[in-house]
Amino acid sequence: MASFKASTEHAWVPVGLPWMGKRDEFLASIRANVRGFVKSSALYTEGYRKPGKYMSYRRGHGGPQIVVPPSMGPWIAAIPDDVLNAKDCTYDNVQFKYTVGHPEILANDMIDLLIKRELTRTTGTMNVEIIEEIDDSLESLFGADGQWRKVGVFDTLTRTVGRVSSRVFVGKELCRNMEYVMSASDFARAVSVSGYILHLFPKFMRPAISWFATMPNRRHSGIAMKHLQPLIAQRIIDMRAKAADPTYPWEEPEDFITWMVRESFKRDTDHETSVYHLSYRIVLLNFGGITTTSIMVVNAVLDIWSSHNAADVIVALREEAELVLKEHGEWSKAALAKLHRLDSAIRESARVSAIGGNALARRVKVDDFTLPNGLAVPKNSTIGVSMDGIHFDEEHYDRPTIYDPFRFSRPREETLASEKPRVNEDLVTTSVHWLPFSHGLHACPGRFFAANNVKMILAQLLLDYEIQPFATRPPECRHR
To answer: What pTM did the predictor assign?
Structure first.
């Protein structure tokens, strides 16, 4: 089975292109696949550092990818979806066909539209409500009695992120229902795990394997749907009643469900209007809204509190948070924009602890596709750049293996008051040299919401809690 999978993947790459991680040994292709699975970051970086940094690729759980030079990043980002498709790569990577199903929802534009139009527009306007959830969640997890506690970093912060995201997605009442919050978080995690499992098998076997691999997905989504469907059904009733009679005694909440139901009134297909399909859209929204944000928060906490000069870093971040909060009185959008040091510490954490080793992944959709160097690439190939290679390249970053929390804020702070900042690199600013949120047309549309929440969670941790530094790492250390 492994041999069949390895051999069929050769059809997706140009003949003669070297395989990163493949050696002259027994079962070379299979063992290269295993290395791609367990050492993907190292292989991406190895390919990046080859002479000329051109056209090497490796194999991992998701099949082969042609790794192109970082200079081709803008070129990739500018090519239309009908030639190089980003969404196909994302869906195939997580095996959405099996792990999620519902092609009628995945192919629909409603979630993307509402994220770009409504969620981005309202980011920063609901911070009072978000802080309420952060404070209540952290107090319930960490306590408020001044006693030291040992808590799991990932589990506790995932719970907090789940509540914070759900406050905006589904409103105050449901976001405090921990059965719902944990089912949403567990669903997001189960989708990723089942996607990995399915990639271990050839394509023809996945339909049979998927029923077993996705059992946790169905269980967790079922729990979430149990809570979502009555809420959305009632929201539809109330919104229709209010539209028909302005004196109807009900105030419309500002949350994703309201935006989604309002948009559904403009549509006419069952998968855009039914309670079931609208509810499942919220389940899918949690996959993107909770998983990556949780990982970013957790990595930032681990990087900040384990840095070689953690005590000094924490003092500097806390001083900044105290000054900004005193000036503004609350965590408004304007106040968060002044947390330059904290923003830099998170951005730097995302650089050294980025999720995945590649970026700008695109699926070739046409038969005759040629790269700028003249290399013909078969249809259904995947191309992209080495994010790890770029993030740890001395041409782009001074001493790139060091976690320098103020790398991005230092130029701003060193600028004289009469001058404009030398750079404008904050957490939501993407570039071909910083790719955790991708770049270009397909840069993550939810990054503004995620950055807003990550900064508020960390600011509250700094202001309200003493966290003992973790085992510190030496300064010259690659965190991944």
So the answer is: 0.90
